[in-house]
Amino acid sequence: MNNGPKSPSILPSPAHCPYLNLRDDPQTSLAFPSIWNYCYRAVPPASVRIEHQIQVCQTARFSECVVYQRKESRALPAELQSIHVRQASSSKRKLRLILLGLLALAILSLWGVQAGVLHLAPPFDLRGLKNPSKPAGSASPVASALSSNLALAPSAKLEDTATPKLDAPTGASAGLCGVPLDTPIGTDQKFIIHRVGRGESLNGYEVTYGTSSEAILAANYGLRVPVLSNSVIVIPLDQTDPSVLPAFEVYQADAADGSIELLSSKLDVDPQQLARYNDFPQSCRTISGWLLVPRQVFTP
User: Fold this and answer.
1) Which of 62, 54, 52, 47 is nearest to 31 (CA)?
2) Which 3 state secondary structure label does DSSP give 282?
3) Alpha helices of 121-175 — where are they, by DSSP H?
4) Distant-in-sequence, close-in-space partners of 132: CB < 8 Å, separation ≥ 6
5) d(Cα 200, Cα 229) in Å, to the nearest integer?
6) Cis (ω within 30 of 0) for the bond into 122?
7) Gap between the Cα atoms of 56 and 79, Å rounded
8) Which residue has the higher pLDDT, 120 or 90?
9) Comparing 57-66, 125-134, 211-220, 289-298, which segment has the lowest mean pLDDT?
10) What are residue 292's DSSP bridge partners?
11) Residue 224 to residue 16: CA distance in whole angstroms
12) Residue 70 and residue 295: Cα distance in Å, rounded?
């Protein structure tokens, strides 16, 4: 039995706006300020500035918020919107323009291949047209040449312009970045991303995962206690020393987040750090699932 000091039980707290929840999961709230905390009182839901979350949304003063108080549903005021989300929207627009440009290039390239096949096919011999002793029922030289050229030239042309093959992925999840909840993640030090259940406590995690309350608090950037049920937190596995642990936020990614570089820009994190802590394979092409987002802790 663990006789150490008990950590606070994880209970719902009134000091938290009920409309502030995760972008992709309106029923789940984070226990700390984050750019993916969205206000569902606004229509459409939008990410809230970190400063407003700290000063209003995640305090007992949430009822003083102008968005919370207004009767009609409207868009979140620009001064309360997260600057990261505005930057991400701009990045998505740029990505769409790039994809449209690539699609146009692909269509033009395909048209050029088809035109080049017919243009570069070797000319057929017309001298056979002067041969009066052509066996009855045989195909004319024109028809034979056309048939031969149109059947063989495309395959030869397409072989020259074929797209280089990528290395074959290994495993069912090759090319996929991100993990489900409660799946070990990381390199030397392993972590899990866990959704807090009702009645769970930090002391209980100590026994289950071989960690300590101090280590859990150190691994979660800006985590406050008591921790709200249904929150999503990081738990270090088999590690009790908080001084050796980096701090993380968690993020649930999907295919719309684009490449690692675009997602790193959106989350304001170094892409190499994001790849290292999440142990991304070199074959990573698609981002889908939960991620560790490293954050720098400033000590006064």
Assistant:
1) 54
2) coil
3) 141-160
4) none
5) 8
6) no
7) 14
8) 90
9) 125-134
10) 250
11) 12
12) 35
Phi and psi at 288, nearest 5°, equal -155, 120
Q: Which of 116-125, 144-153, 234-243 has the lowest mean pLDDT?
A: 144-153
Q: Which two tokens stand for residue 57?
A: 């949304």
Of 224, 272, 278, 225, whose CA–CA distance to 251 is shortest? 278
Task: Report whether pLDDT(23) > 60.
Answer: yes
Tokens 């994001």 label which residue? 274
Geometric angle at alpha carbon 58, from 55 and 63, rounded to 5°: 80
Locate the DSSP E strands across 105-153: none
Which whole-number Å values give the CA distances from 284 to 92, 174, 185, 251, 262, in the listed order? Answer: 20, 7, 15, 17, 14
Q: How far is CA 60 from the centre of its chain?
A: 33
Provide the sign of the torsion angle of the four alpha carbons 13, 16, 21, 22, taken in this order: negative
Global pTM? 0.47
The residue type at 154: P
Q: How far apart are CA 218 and CA 245, in angstroms?
A: 7
Amino acid (one-letter) located at 265: S
Strands 232-236 and 191-195: antiparallel
Handedness of CA 33, 66, 64, 40 (dihedral sign): negative
Asked whether the bond before 226 is cis by omega within 30 degrees of 0, the reply is yes
- What separation in angstroms does the CA of 213 have from each of 161, 185, 192, 295? 59, 19, 15, 19
First to last CA, the chain: 37
* Contact status, residue 277 vs residue 268, Cβ threshold 8 Å: no
Q: How many helices (H) and strands (E) does the chain have?
A: 8, 9
Q: How many residues does the chain have?
A: 300
